[in-house]
Every structure is written in C-alpha cells, then in structure tokens.
C-alpha cells in the first residue's frame, strides 16, 4: 500500500497593505445622490476650495483634482495655488499661496490652495466657495505635530512660543474665512463676525470629522459622480505632551465658536449612475479620466481585494443602500 503523503500546510494569505501607522490602506466608495431640482450648476462659475490647514484638505483636494484637473475637465482652466498662509510652517521654501494665484487668468474654473476668503476678486466668473472645518483642538494638535515632524519646532516647544514666532496662527480658521490677510492683525470679535458672515455665502461647508457624509453632500449638491477614493486622512501617530491641550485652548476660542456654528445635514435621493476613481486607485476606466458605470464598483472592489487593499462603503447599511 502506498504511504500517505504528509499533509500540506494551508496557503497563508498575503499580508494586508498597511500605512505607516500599521493601519489598513483603505479605499472608500461614496455614492452621489440625485437631488433633482436641488442640484447646483458649476458651469461658467469659479469653484474656489479654501483649504484650511489640517482640515482634510489633502484628501478632498485629491478628489477635486481628479475631476477638475484630469481629462474629465479642462486642466488648463484649473489652478493649484501652492504655498502656505500667514507664513505658517508647512515646509521649506514655501511662500504665500495667495501670491501664487495667476491674476492674469480670467478663464479659471477651479482654484484651490491655502487661500483667504476674497481671493476671487478680479476674476470674471461668479465664485462658488467650498471648504472643510475641523474641531479646533484636534486641528491644532495635528498642525503642531506636523510642524514638529518637519523640523519647525520640537514637541516640547511651548505652543505659545510657536504662535509667537508665527509657526501657527491663533484662530487660523476664523482668520482665513474672514479674509484677514495680515498675520500680525489681532483676531477679534469683529473677525469672527466677518468669518460667520462670509460662511453664509459658501455653497458647501464640510466637517473633517464627518468627511464621508460631507463628501456625499458635496458630490450630490453639484451633480458630480459617485467616487472611489484613497483615504489619506491618517497622519503619522505622534506622542504629544499631555499639557498641550491646555496650552492650545487660549488660542482657539474664536475657532471653536466658528466650528460650533456648522452642521452637515444628510441628503436623500437615488444613486447617480456614474462614478470616478481617485488617480491612486487601480485603473479600470474605459478612457483615462472618464466616469465609468456604477456597475464598475464590483470590478474595482474585487481587483483591490486581490492586491490586499481594504475597500469600504462607509455610508451603506448591510443591504448596500445609502444611509440617511
């Protein structure tokens, strides 16, 4: 009788792709919903994304760029104003983003960057302002860690010293949304009043803590396709001093009041028939930059799984339909 062969070990699954914090690299699917008569038109208007530092702008910018600076749109009519605002430390050799805006361009349809409200002045098209806010303490902690990682200061530098040297502005969200361009000017009750008044003119205000819901509202509001995107929202984990929160609080009082004034309300409707994918997601598009049928979600999900990436639909229930 032939001898029985030794049992073969079960094949081990390939390790999941993880980020620098050891967390899964996640691609998310957010459905755009048809709002019918409630949809706003972007044609012949200037979309201005006011990127408040450390407020989910990196992820949102990547999504906007895919649509407005790819073959879907017209890249020649878009402008990313590189640079910082208020001279805040964001890397060596960076000037003010407002100075990078091409004022001789009257045909721009998309403008983004660390820009103050009012940057639309001088352009022919009607502006459509959009932005994201973030809980001020969390935003400031993230900004502090970001600057320390890049050598702007150390983790044991008092927060007040960072503000005094101009590394981080006090109440930066309030300042930026008020259109206050002088970093040495004090942030006052009048500044907050101006910021709140300006926010009323924004077509969309999202919250970083509710990013996917905010994104769904944005896509639906402007009649854009559903999207599959790479979640860039998790920075490197840093052990911050226990005393940092108390150090920050005196410098964010106006930002806290501004943040508390905003809420994101869900929208309802049928899923739009098309989607697009972030440029970092595997390419399954029939033509570069073009929307693909919503049925393509299954192809993308399966392909990402074979490459050991995680795929989520954060606003869907167990039946796969959008939550509201």
User: What is the C-alpha radius of gyration, as a whole number of Å?
Assistant: 22 Å
| CATH architectural label | 3-Layer(aba) Sandwich
Strand content: 5-15%
Q: Indicate the percent of residues in helices.
A: 25-40%
Might you state the CATH topology name? Rossmann fold
Distance between the termini: 66 Å
Q: Class by helix and strand content?
A: alpha/beta
The CATH class: Alpha Beta
What is the number of domains? 1
Mean pLDDT: 87
Quick one: biggest sheet? 5 strands, mixed
H/E element sequence: EEHEEEHHHHEHEHHEEHE
Structure report:
The C terminus is likely disordered. The chain is of the alpha/beta class and 324 residues long. It has a single domain, classed as Rossmann fold, CATH 3.40.50. The longest helix has 14 residues. The strands form 2 sheets. The chain has a 5-stranded mixed sheet, with helices on both faces. It contains 9 helices and 10 strands. The protein is globular. Helix 4 packs across helix 5.
Describe the SSE topology:
Blueprint: E1 26-30, E2 45-50, H1 57-68, E3 78-81, E4 110-113, E5 126-133, H2 136-149, H3 159-164, H4 172-178, H5 189-199, E6 204-207, H6 211-221, E7 226-230, H7 244-248, H8 253-260, E8 274-277, E9 292-293, H9 296-306, E10 310-312
Parallel strand pairs: 1-10, 2-4, 2-5, 3-4, 5-6, 7-8
Antiparallel strand pairs: 1-7, 8-9
Helix pairs in contact: 4-5, 5-8
